[in-house]
Amino acid sequence: MLNILWPIFIIISIIYAVISGNIENLNNSIFVETENVVQFSLTLLGMTCLWSGIMEVALNTRIIDCLSKILKPVINFLFKDIEKDDECNKNIIMNIIANILGLGNAATPLGLKAMNALQKHNKEKSTLSDNMIMLIVLNTASLQVIPTTVIAIRNSLGSKNPTMIIFPVWIATVCAAIVGGLVTKILIKFNRRKL
Amino acid sequence: MSLINYISIVAIPIVIFIIIGNALREKVAVFDIFLKGARDGLEIVLKIFPTLIGLFVAIGMLRSSGVIDFITRVVSPVTSFFMPNEILPLAILRPISGSASMAVATDIIKMNGVDSFIGVLAAVIMGSTETTLYTIAVYSSSVKAKNTRFVLFASLMADITGVIVSVIIVSKIFG
Description:
heterodimer, A: about 0% strand
């Protein structure tokens, strides 16, 4: 995917910048962005190490077993043949819970751990498996109980009722997750038939 | 407001407390286990760093060159049927850049008023969608998968649903 998108982004940007006279802006952005990545990665590094560590602890206690029982029906519907692998199962459950609780900083590291666990069962290592795609789609749907960042922005801009967006966000995000999950399920079936 | 604020402040400490507290009760070698996990985390970030460099720079170029503004102008006649034009830059930026879309959303909310139809809509879209391209790139590169199949399509379908449902719901609220 990025083998196509990435060069298109760059070539189009440079051509358009030359035509529209934005080339100086574009030149500056190259240096600003590389600096941003380092900044961002350092934050990510700290967060990922911390949450990977905490998760490893959680994986070694019985806490996850309780959560698994609650989420089992949903997980079994969305993912295939996952209950056989305990580690996979647990990582996916923690990723979903971190998302729902709005622990954005924790959700990504946990999701990446789940991806690594899923890779062990993937027959073709350079291609995403069905379960991996489902996990990614669920993560892009941004399920969360309290959209804290947006509420904080609304509050800082002097809203009379900053939290009024919670209910609309729930509906929109649940619809998005359902559509994403169903589209993925359908495409998995369709894809298999073609092969 | 203060309750929600409080919840978002205590959520992470409480989760850590429960996990560590439980480990202590079950008498496992907490710190050794933690170190093993933290080392895994180091590896994960090293794996995705090259992806981040490539993506951040390319998207920075897209924005600074004015291509995004150009796309906004071209597609606005079509999208204006189901989406207010003020929202369009946000809908386009949202899947590709988290920080840029946050800046644009804040701008839209300021310009149109925080409790106005457009202001609320921008906030709802921000809250109900994710930085899809970044998520896909980071997750895929963490397992070194090159063939991502239909994941972009499925995720974008979810995003489009999120935006359209946001428009419908917020329109209903504002009558």
